[in-house]
Amino acid sequence: MHPPMLEGNLAQPVIRRLNALRQLSDRGIALLQQAIQDGLQRARAGEDIVSEGDPVDGVRIILSGWLCRYKTLEDGRRQIVNFVLPGDSCDACVYLLSVMDHSIGALTPVTYAEIERAAFEKLLAGDRSLAEALWCETMVNSAIQREWTVNIGRRIALERIAHLLCELHERLLPVGMIEDGSCLFPITQMDLADATGLSVVHVNRTLQELRGAGLIVLRDRTLTITDLKVLQGTALFSADYLHTKRRG
Amino acid sequence: MHPPMLEGNLAQPVIRRLNALRQLSDRGIALLQQAIQDGLQRARAGEDIVSEGDPVDGVRIILSGWLCRYKTLEDGRRQIVNFVLPGDSCDACVYLLSVMDHSIGALTPVTYAEIERAAFEKLLAGDRSLAEALWCETMVNSAIQREWTVNIGRRIALERIAHLLCELHERLLPVGMIEDGSCLFPITQMDLADATGLSVVHVNRTLQELRGAGLIVLRDRTLTITDLKVLQGTALFSADYLHTKRRG
DNA sequence: GCGTCGACTTAACATACTTGAAATCGCGTC
DNA sequence: GACGCGATTTCAAGTATGTTAAGTCGACGC
After folding, report:
1. Cβ–Cβ of A149/B81 closer than 8 Å?
2. For residue A236, which residues of chain B lie inside 8 Å, CB to CB?
3. Residue A175 pLDDT > 60
4. Considering only the top CATH level, what class is B4-146?
């Protein structure tokens, strides 16, 4: 259906992401590309690709688009617990549990690959570097989750939003989605609020403050970090928890 | 050094904990007990058994005592990101990463088993039920971490503390540390504050409120949940995220 | 071209929670 | 038995953040 060339392009973010954790072998890359090609899927913005309570059937690998993991309280309060970016995979091993404890919703149109449990186990068994990279990614997700707990629990609004922006910047770097400190930023202020545990109004106030300080430009779904060092400073940000090998 | 009987008792919480996730085979239990016996360690209250920045050398399994995982900001603010209870293991697979991104500190005197990387890999390879149970536990830890994010981000103080108490209650049940709704509760109000993202003063106020409502009795390091149903209700608590098979 | 709708923005007000400080209590030490 | 110390408790005052509401802007449909 698609020419091989296109498939290669689609898998680029995933390969770059995993390579930043563990050097993938050629064999691993080939297996991965095949698995991706076999399970291509799309979702529209606003759609949930998995919902809380669903049985866990397999693994999803994001090729393009942004999503978020979130949980909702009975009375409607929502908390986004993580963003899922191109190259990320969802629940590389949550398939050990039987039921999803959270939902994953698309913030933009999304392309992803869905890999059934059996195929995924074959993938893991097929190449050690690939298996390790995927486990690794799961571990990094845990580390991110811990840092979010710290962020929401102990940072004030300004630091908190600054920290989130720093994290997203750092995570988008290895998959090649940052150009000149700018990136597409499809997150609404309401999403930002639900991700930081703040109200929309206060998120807005705080973004104004960051703009006023000349640290960021955020306009037309595009984020530019004008002064990364200072932004990281005000966020008390250190990239260590992302466990990403730096290029070079 | 110790009679086999005593070792069996030491490993009880671990076995019960893992059994609640995956039925362990006899072989798995035997391997586990041997590994535990080989790596017995102690720590005093207040001591860190692992610190942020340390190389990740192996895995620790808690036999008795309470600990917490925590991170500290440059200026001293501290956030506890999880409690570690008897039967829990620390970083069953974080050993895929090279450096700890958080510390683990003992809140009470602690007995634990330290298993080197090689021995641990042999353990995983030696019994499938054991390996699955340990991976499973790691996944549950991620789920707990997500729920903490929700808790701190979207619940008010009263709900937040109630939720934490419900979670601890639920986690202590399968390891047999709840008697008549009561348990040892060695956490200071300051720890509680650092775990919930609140100030000590407000934690105190909120505990008074829970006491006043007749939901809990907390005195002399002992917590009694007087009205579990109502406590869970005010916490908007559902145990689903703990993925624990219920007895019976 | 007008109306609708979602996202963003701003203002005024309310409050949940923090900060700082001091009193009390229990507990182990000298 | 006096002292010191950590944990708990209470008070008073301050502030970061939430809430409610209303207005703007751009995109999109008819």
Report:
1. yes
2. 73-75
3. yes
4. mainly beta
